[in-house]
Amino acid sequence: MRQTSLPLENLQAWSRLNNVQLFDVALEPHITADNGDDHGGGMLAKADRAETEPLVAVPLELVLSKERVEEAAKVDTGLRQLVDAAPTLFQVGPPFIQQTNRMRCLQNDRTAVLLFLVYQMTINSPDNSDHAPGFNNPLADYVKFLPKDIPLPIFYTADERELLVGTSLAEALDQKLISLQREFDSLKAATESITWCQQAWWDEITGCLDFADWKLADAVYRSRALELPRGASVGMVPVVDMANHASDDRYNARFEVDEDAGSVLLVVRDGKSIKQGDEVTIMYGCGGACEMIFSYGFLEEHASSAREMFLALSIPADDPLKMAKIRVAQTAPGVRIYVDEADQVQWDSTFVWWACINQEDGLDFRVEQTVDGDTELKALWKENELDPSALQAKLLQDDLRDVFVLRATVRLQQRVEEQGMRLAASEDDFDNALPGNAQIRPYVYETVGRLRKLEMDLLTRTYETLEEQKNQLLESPVVRAYLGQDRSGTDVPDSPDDFS
């Protein structure tokens, strides 16, 4: 649907009208970066500010969060109908996924805020034809200030998505788009019986809501939501969300909640000072290169490492316990690879342990009947009931610990090698993609190119680290005894079939 926008030049006036205090800070629609590029709106200091001095104070009632949406719904009939429909949203997938989605719908701030955003976008839209109810409030105008063009990967063209082949972002983007489409379909199913929704959103003639609008609402929330300290929820904070990002050693401001004053404060970061004319910056997050592009659409200018990446893992199709493992584990089927503070490559995965053990090791399953007549699948380890979350601890305490760790190490190394080969194989296509292709924007090409290089570097380091760990484990007396060899026997093959 078409959107009504207000220029950022008007945001300072909106701030005054809604009791947002600016302490020697100017809201600028255009900020020039160090390299001379215009990177959009931001904040500039109009005077020197010392450590912990306030820069902005925003009343808590202006924070767009689940609590704020619930308050607004008490006096807004149309919004109330959406909130009431929320428990029926996003109930898709297997039973345990349905429960997870229902809990997210009832407890997660994201769902409430996205419903508010599409509701307000509808009211603001010139395509609405007055079918949606609603009334003006401070947040209605705030939504008009929000960007309508956000450079997140969910808006990449098909040719731009091809540039991602071999990166961890490619699969994450595929899954995100599937999830968003599923949510949008569920939104329609849950609200098409609401009269105004049918007329304003779903009617073939008067309906104006489409999948692009849902993607925009998600992108706005994902790129602007702040996790407020002291358990004050997650939400979008007007004006504070104008501050641009800087890396861990460069940002100069932070936000906090002043419960006594009833406001969210943006203050000068501890150990920093701000000079007149400096840009006020915060740190959006400390995730890896993939996460920065996924959630914010850019990479830090000075990024020299991918920091972390998530690779999907699977259980072999010929594993007779595959479906039982997946159902009981209920954990992300993948591995997180990251670089720690000592610049050492580490990995973290619960799923890999499920993939590495079998019935001969002592894993088994049984079906039990519950008191209400349903059936429940239980995991067993050496004939004792197993808490799924305790599997890794059980294996690391087992006499065959080194055997299990070696299996996990080899499996992860194979997965890392597979990802690296996929990335390398697509390099020529990437190099030849840009010239003459109007469907690929130069800034996207440059961003993805940097991601590809950083992830290849991390994959290479990870493979070498796992190779070293594998070789050490192959010297373990436990491993040698398990393979029927002693220290003086023949060499253990690099990738024994037992561990593949």
TrEMBL record:
Superkingdom, taxonomy of origin: Eukaryota
Every SET domain range: 18-285
Gene3D superfamilies: set domain protein methyltransferase, domain 1
GO cellular component: nucleus
GO molecular function: protein-lysine N-methyltransferase activity
SUPFAM superfamilies documented for this protein: SET domain (SSF82199)
Name the record gives this protein: SET domain-containing protein
Source species of the chain: Exophiala viscosa
Origin organism lineage: Eukaryota, Fungi, Dikarya, Ascomycota, Pezizomycotina
